[in-house]
Design a protein that fits this description.
With about 110 residues, this protein is an alpha+beta fold. Helix content is about 20%, strand content about 30%. It starts with a strand and ends in an 11-residue tail after the last strand. This is Trypsin-co-occurring domain-containing protein.
Length: about 110
Amino acid sequence: MNDLARFPLEGGGSVVVEIDPVPGTSRVSRRDDLIEDAKGSFEAALTNVREAAASALATFRSMTSGPDEVEIKFGVKLTAQAGAVIAKTGLEGNFEVKLKWVREPDTAAGS
């Protein structure tokens, strides 16, 4: 069974997420103590992932002949201790990047 972690929201309230149990430990708790409190806010947990996405996007946008569209996909895993991390995937990498170039319409052909 997966564990639960409560992340406080900066605007008030909280969000409860399902997390993987820490290997090698077993949770013994009372019925009313089944949710672990996260070390930081939900927004703070996502800050590092947001910065990684912004950095990747800036790298692709700075190409000499940059794409018209950039799509970056990656999984995010939440842990009570580390916050948000880029999730391991079944593929070789953690990111799936899609770059798209659209040819400019040929203005000479229409004349």
